[in-house]
Amino acid sequence: MSRTGRTPVSSAATGEPLSIQLQRTIRRKIILGEYPQGLALTEQRVAADLDVSRVPVREAMPVLQQQGFVEASPRRTSYVTTWTAQRINDLFDARLGVEVVAVGGAARRTRAGIDTAGLEQMLAKAEHHLDEGEALELAETNSAVHVTLVAAAGNELLNELMRVISGRLAWIFYLTSSRDLRNQVHEHHAITEAIRNGNDRLAESLMWAHIEAGRAPTLDALVR
């Protein structure tokens, strides 16, 4: 934080493009509620807050819009996305279409010799963060578990669709962090076990139930 109270962002230390760092910083502020839902995010406002020029902010906004964190108005002002019942149901329906199919494919690949070590490592990381109790990091890790499960199917198009979903998923996980997280980790283990055993129908059923178990609590927490 600068002495002016702003949050400076710089690419000097990492060599990473400033617009990419800004995407990550703005996304984090949105998830944490520092930029609340419905807030107008003008280029001038964000640039002043993050102590950068307006050019990288302009470059970051379309990506954040694609990821579902901001939406543009006809007057070209960006607003933080507001979660509605329709948007929540759209997200959960998309997850059913991608994740259920993916874990079935992953199980079938297991029968052909796929290595599930990556899944096990991600589950262990999730359990570590659960013990640490850091809500945002756990939400990001929880989302990464689902990305890893989809990746196990070896389907590039499913991976691409999941990349669009994953940011929204981390946001939802953070906003509903009061749910029984240990039970969610247990369900991840059950899905992974079904994949490891090559049981595609069981993996699909478990993933379907796992996703649907979160729909009503998410609607209750954010809309009703």
Structural class: mainly alpha
The strands making up the biggest β-sheet line up spatially as 1-3-2
Poorly predicted runs = 1-5
Compressed to H and E, one letter per element, the order equals HEHHEEHHHHHH
Number of helices: 9
* Average pLDDT number: 89
What distance separates the N and C termini? 36 Å
**Major sheet:** 3 strands, antiparallel
Provide key terms for this protein.
elongated, single chain, three-stranded antiparallel sheet, mainly alpha, 9 helices, disordered N terminus, 224 residues
Brief write-up:
With 224 residues, the chain is mostly helical.
Task: Walk me through the structure.
This protein has a three-stranded antiparallel β-sheet. It is built from nine helices and three strands; from the N terminus they run H-E-H-H-E-E-H-H-H-H-H-H. Helix content is 69%, strand content 4%. It has helices at 18-32, 43-50, 54-66, 85-110, 117-132, 135-151, 156-175, 181-196, 200-222, and strands at residues 40-41, 70-72, 78-80. It is mainly α.
Topology:
Blueprint: H1 18-32, E1 40-41, H2 43-50, H3 54-66, E2 70-72, E3 78-80, H4 85-110, H5 117-132, H6 135-151, H7 156-175, H8 181-196, H9 200-222
